[in-house]
Amino acid sequence: MTIKDIAALCGVSVSTVSRVLNNHPDVSAQVRSRVMEVVQANHYIPSNSARDLVRTRSDAIGLVVRGTANPFFAEVLKTMEAKVTEAGYTMVLHQIGTCDDELQAGAMLERDKKLRGLLLLGGRSDYAKNDVAALNVPFVCCTYDNSYGTLGEEEYSSVSIDDEQEACRAVKSLIGKGHRRIAALISARNDRSISELRYGGYRRALKEAGIALDETLVEETGSFQMPEAYEAMERLLKRTGEFTALFAISDAMAVAAIKALDDAGRRVPEDCSVIAIDGITMSAYTLPTLSTLIQPADQIAAEAVRILVDRIEGRAAGRHVQVATILRPGRSVCVNQE
Amino acid sequence: MTIKDIAALCGVSVSTVSRVLNNHPDVSAQVRSRVMEVVQANHYIPSNSARDLVRTRSDAIGLVVRGTANPFFAEVLKTMEAKVTEAGYTMVLHQIGTCDDELQAGAMLERDKKLRGLLLLGGRSDYAKNDVAALNVPFVCCTYDNSYGTLGEEEYSSVSIDDEQEACRAVKSLIGKGHRRIAALISARNDRSISELRYGGYRRALKEAGIALDETLVEETGSFQMPEAYEAMERLLKRTGEFTALFAISDAMAVAAIKALDDAGRRVPEDCSVIAIDGITMSAYTLPTLSTLIQPADQIAAEAVRILVDRIEGRAAGRHVQVATILRPGRSVCVNQE
DNA sequence: CTGAAAGCGCTAACAC
DNA sequence: GTGTTAGCGCTTTCAG
């Protein structure tokens, strides 16, 4: 069933049907309702392929989300959609796996949907010039920047927290409570991304407090998932129990770690304080509720859309915003009782 | 940059470029490598719109996921993708919000991507004949069926748990532990879907045990989210504390309820046992770990793909599979101690 | 092995 | 207010 069939069924031309379908004003009410009738009756749906192909320009902003599982992204996504609409654009969402390439996905979307701009939610922090050359519209990296890449400041935009700084802050808050033997649960020491950055913050906090780094207190999970975090914590506990606090680089990892501690007979926070970074909804409802530095999802989303729209409309060049986290005090941290 | 530009740049025709791009064998190695070179250098990406438009048939199976937030779906999705590939098809994923219409989204996808079949993950349980008339390929409803609809058995396929039966089983397990005053945390009494079905199972379990239904022990959350579940639990606790166990229709709701109970000074399971249905990863890592009936994600996914492929290849008519849940014993249930 | 040409279904001028 | 028609970028016969 094509627009041609509908036109024939109605005894009008394809352009008239097209006009009705696209809410153009210059169609008589009579013809309009007749066309709508036939469209409904035949369950006719216009082909987006054909539409996208013929349209030379759109008001669409693309959003490529890398990592469906990340619950934090769901919250950002919601606000982004609202802000994009508010700015008079439409949003095209595209989710990809953690293993997929967000730049390639973005380039594809740009091509197909004739995007005006691109929002990248989660991605690599090591873009080279040639990587982003595939993109011909402004883009904003959300929740990450280009710490390990070779892009110039002007060549991209970003909105994120200062991962190194915030991790440092989290660990220092532990130190402030009298903890000196602080374990770290990270994804990987050198993932050229979030984990590496936050691990760097952990190391700096220790250093600035005059505490020597003890690598036996650091465990890598290899992922951001709960099962792997639980297992990593088991390994750590098997190796050494000599710590009074734990810094986890994400909420989900922290929650799994608390369970591992509990299973090993160590109470949280009495026997081990736990702090993390993220601030997802879930960790506010687990017991004990998690103390964490929350990434302000709404602010990140709003800022990202604002920057992108400004760029699209020619009001700005590459801009980089770092938003501050907010401490959400839970019940997982207490003063060192040793 | 179009295929024409690439052709011009290479000094060949568009058909040759097309052949290279689609891995057709009849192109000389020399020309092939030259074309690839130019494609890479120019970051050329073929237009999917144009491709989809011209292609009359594909090997694609569409997957429409309704409700990004649902962590259970993420697990099903993964297995589905593997099984679809294994069967020699490609998968096209499309995520929509809880408020969107999965049939419309599916019809659109079918049209655009020339689908051979459709997998619907999460959806309404009350389709009428006219609703599904928009679909021209076989489809399988996953995690739900048509309990409240008017479809004939032959008109669709489904893979799900028996929500009423499993809820009944969950509540009976509570009764078996000596509980008689059992509260229920549901989404809505009459959502014509999961919540209504599971609430029905709750009522039947009570009835068959000779326990009168006490509506004051039933609270509606209006959603499946944790904050709403927490608040609903607060309302319930404010109204009455006279229950020794709680049945929640989902894991996430149960975890939030446990937190509400804890905040109200009631220990789980000592003061109140809690059981739910779902079996998401998260609830195995909260404290106390949740006792729940797990929906076997892998089995649902595998079964759904098998049914769909059978239908596509003409080996079967509408088929309906109900998979059994598996009890995952946690620490949230104990014998009634009153 | 390679090229020319016919559409896929639709929108948007441009006529009437 | 309505119809005619030229492409959008691509794949795919069909020739050579």
Automatic annotation (TrEMBL), chains A, B:
Residues 1-55 form the HTH lacI-type domain. SMART domains: HTH_LACI (SM00354). Pfam families: LacI (PF00356), Peripla_BP_3 (PF13377). The keyword Membrane does not apply. InterPro entries: HTH_LacI, LacI/GalR-like_sensor. It comes from the Bacteria. This is LacI family transcriptional regulator. It comes from Dysosmobacter acutus.
